[in-house]
Model the fold of this input.
Amino acid sequence: MHSLLLLTSLMALAFTDGASALAISSPLSPITKTPITREPTRTITSTPTFTKCVPPPQPIPGDYAPIFASTPGTAVSYLQLDELPSGLAGLTPDGIQLRFEYETSAAGGYLRVNPITRCPTTKYLTVIEAGPHSYKPLAWTTTLQTSYWVVEPAKNVTTSRTSPYGVVDKFIACGPTNELFLQTGNELPENVKCTETTLELGMIR
Done:
């Protein structure tokens, strides 16, 4: 009797283990993959806009006074202060033809081009002081960097007595574009023809 019960128990245990093994070894349910939808690549394009300074077709009477080379008999005589394509200052026959503004005191001040609708950017006449030479390039910059100009109508443009060079009214115009330099000594650029001159602020037209 005990043997029969033991045999029955073993058979039941074997059946249970087999069912468990069968359940464990059953294949897993397949995984359903959801396709990923990708947006098409977008190319962002932009058209840059540039503001070009365009001088008026004719001088504007009563609107500006030119700054010109006041050295009669020289190659640059009566050429006017202008901005070259490089951003440097130079002398040209027509000049910048925009309004000059200046602030002068005993310590000097700025010299700038006043913005108008044709050229909405204020630009300052700046001495580029880098380098050991006595001739200092002049450039037009959008930030105030040189504040020791002395400018008065019908007089020569000079630096002030408190500038790094004291009172200086000499400039040189060099090369085919008459690039302007403040001349604080006697050195000249090599391999280029230069003319010494002074600059004068004319009367308002």
User: Anything to note?
Assistant: The chain has a mean pLDDT of 75. The CA atoms of residues 32 and 83 lie 71 Å apart. The radius of gyration is 41 Å. Helices lie at 2-25.
